[in-house]
Specification:
mainly alpha
């Protein structure tokens, strides 16, 4: 039997190790996919804890920790409900005006498409409208069943939110003690490394959460002010949409502003819509070259290409939730790796270069 070459032997040893690692990763994602509601609730609890940890700590210096947690959580819930109420009032107040402007905008768009260079057949859009009406009439039962299933999904969402708030209460009240207890259960040689990785992960996750919140708020203010002065209806709801969309780096803001461009096109015409499209480019440049480097450079040390690939991969794996979770997950993993690698390096003496 001829001897096996060293290259083939090395390749085979790496191949079976890669297969084992791939099987382990697949098993982890399969478990997370089976219990994704619990994973999302834990992530929401960590986000709330990261945002409210400092205010709770400062308030706990003067009042008991339990009262501090209750005050910060209830106060934050009231702020969120107030914003949602304000948005709902804005939508209700502008609904009649928006419907009228939308009809007028559609008429102007049809007239614009009928002129050169498009020369669209005037019957084309009317045929589309009639087909949509016929589709809704013929698929009424299907749409109704989908609406019922959507109500069931709403119950799942509310359950996940309730579990996330429940987790955040315990994280805020005694998250440090819970982590110390977990480290104490590990074998003694692994305790220090796990503690180092945990500190690095929490520092990165907290920095990312604060940074992305500031970036989203800045984008929402810029979009809201610009749309208000451009006379685009529903400026406040569109600004809120921009706020939540900014939590998906590189992709969320352009999508939200594209929705604003469609509203501007229907309500104000092509010129204002073109200005909103230009706003997409401007805000993208501000976010990519000013906000992210200044606000998040310490928390997230990832190349933009890595961020883009992470967002797309997360969206493919778990939809919108995966796109939101991907970047902080990759950032935390990289920070833990960097912290553990730095801990393994021997300390240099002052005389060494």
């Amino acid at each position: 039997m001829p001897p096996v070459s060293p290259f083939l032997r090395t390749a085979a040893s790496y191949a079976w190790r890669l297969l084992v690692v791939g099987a382990a990763v697949y098993a982890v994602f399969a478990v997370l996919g089976r219990f994704h509601e619990i994973a999302v609730a834990l992530f929401l609890g960590l986000v709330v804890a990261a945002l409210l940890w400092s205010p709770t700590g400062r308030l706990a210096r003067t009042v008991p920790r339990t009262l501090a947690v209750a005050v910060t959580l209830v106060g934050s819930a009231l702020v969120v409900l107030g914003v949602l109420t304000f948005v709902g009032e804005a939508v209700a107040g502008e609904s009649t005006t928006l419907a009228r402007e939308f009809r007028e905008g559609l008429a102007s768009i049809e007239a614009w498409l009928e002129r050169p260079p498009f020369r669209l057949n005037p019957r084309a859009l009317s045929d589309v409208q009639s087909r949509i009406g016929a589709y809704l009439s013929s698929h009424r039962s299907t749409l109704l069943s989908q609406a019922v299933s959507g109500a069931g999904r709403l119950v799942h969402v509310l359950t996940v939110l309730a579990l996330g708030v429940f987790c955040s209460v315990f994280f805020l009240h005694g998250g440090d003690r819970q982590w110390s207890w977990f480290c104490a259960q590990l074998p003694e040689p692994a305790r220090e490394r796990v503690a180092i990785g945990g500190r690095a992960a929490w520092r990165t996750f907290t920095g990312y959460t604060h940074g992305i919140l500031l970036v989203a708020a800045t984008n929402a203010v810029l979009v809201g002010v610009a749309l208000y002065f451009l006379g685009v209806p529903l400026a406040v709801p569109l600004a809120v949409l921009e706020f939540f969309a900014a939590f998906i780096p590189l992709i969320g803001s352009p999508v939200a502003l594209a929705v604003a461009a469609v509203v501007a096109l229907a309500a104000q015409g092509p010129l204002v819509a073109a200005i909103v499209v230009a706003l997409i480019v401007v805000i993208g440049q501000i976010e990519g070259h000013v906000l992210h480097p200044l606000v998040m450079s310490r928390a997230v040390r990832l190349h933009p290409l890595v961020v883009a690939i992470s967002v797309v991969a997360g969206a493919i794996a778990a939809g919108v939730v995966g796109a939101v979770v991907a970047v902080p997950l990759v950032s935390v993993v990289w920070s833990v790796h960097s912290a553990l690698r730095a801990a393994r390096l021997p300390a240099q003496s002052p005389d060494e270069p």
